[in-house]
Known about the structure:
Blueprint: E1 3-10, E2 15-21, H1 27-32, E3 35-40, H2 46-52, E4 65-67, E5 73-75, E6 80-92, E7 95-107, E8 114-116, E9 119-121
Antiparallel strand pairs: 1-2, 2-7, 3-6, 4-5, 6-7, 8-9
Amino acid sequence: xxxxxxxxxxxxxxxxxxxxxxxxxxxxxxxxxxxxxxxxxxxxxxxxxxxxxxxxxxxxxxxxxxxxxxxxxxxxxxxxxxxxxxxxxxxxxxxxxxxxxxxxxxxxxxxxxxxxxxxxxxxxx
Length: 125
């Protein structure tokens, strides 16, 4: 999906940002939608992450999900979900920064999937 960054911006109000490449297949959808959902994958979901990074496929084919009350896709078995209302867009070269206010959350227990230095990694205990 060519999201190059995601991070927390503010606790009050609760804001996050997502950076999306302007050439990404989902660019128009993400920049024109009223909001978005962030699905936090578990360590067991590396294949889901790899699937969503493939260009020009139906990313949801064979992937279990439900729709939130706002209509966002919530993947099965994720560790957490942030449902966000889009509050601003900022041009950033070949990317656009999408600022969202978190309106709803869900958190489960487990180990998160990490992506670090071009590969998937595990937390050390």
